[in-house]
Specification:
single chain, about 130 residues, alpha+beta, two-stranded antiparallel sheet, 2 strands, about 40% helix, about 15% strand
């Protein structure tokens, strides 16, 4: 919890499900596999607004913000068709490589608040969404 969001868990959550299908009538036949990734990302929060100034919470916030920055760099690289996409810049982007790279189908749900007080964060969220749509 921070001053910006008293209910915040201040962390990312992920659920990865692998599904494999084998034909019942021909177990030696062609099998198919797929992966479902469900990810809930913590939002980027500015230190000046959160009230977090030191200790474990500050380190957690720095790590979260760095992983979100890395994800933004990956999305930017994919959107621009870059020859180098920086997948290895964070654990988050390495975990999501199968979900957002190659032939994957990806849906993103962004949440934004209507408050003018958090306009910078909302603008950043929407900008990320526009880049991800490219």
């Amino acid at each position: 919890a921070t001053k910006m969001n008293p209910e915040s868990s201040r962390g990312h959550a992920s659920l990865f499900i692998t599904v494999k299908s084998v034909p019942k009538d021909d177990p030696a036949g062609e099998s198919r596999a797929g992966k479902l990734f469900m990810i809930d990302l913590a939002g980027y929060e500015r230190f000046s607004k959160t009230g977090v100034q030191e200790g474990v919470m500050k380190e957690e916030a720095k790590t979260i913000n760095a992983s979100l920055l890395s994800l933004g760099n990956v999305v930017g690289g994919l959107a621009e068709g870059s020859s180098h996409v920086p997948w290895r810049d964070s654990k988050l982007t390495r975990m999501l490589e199968d979900a957002i790279g190659g032939k994957a189908k990806c849906s993103i749900i962004l949440t934004a608040g209507p408050s003018n007080e958090h306009l910078h964060e909302t603008t950043g969220t929407l900008y990320f969404g526009f880049r991800a749509m490219s």
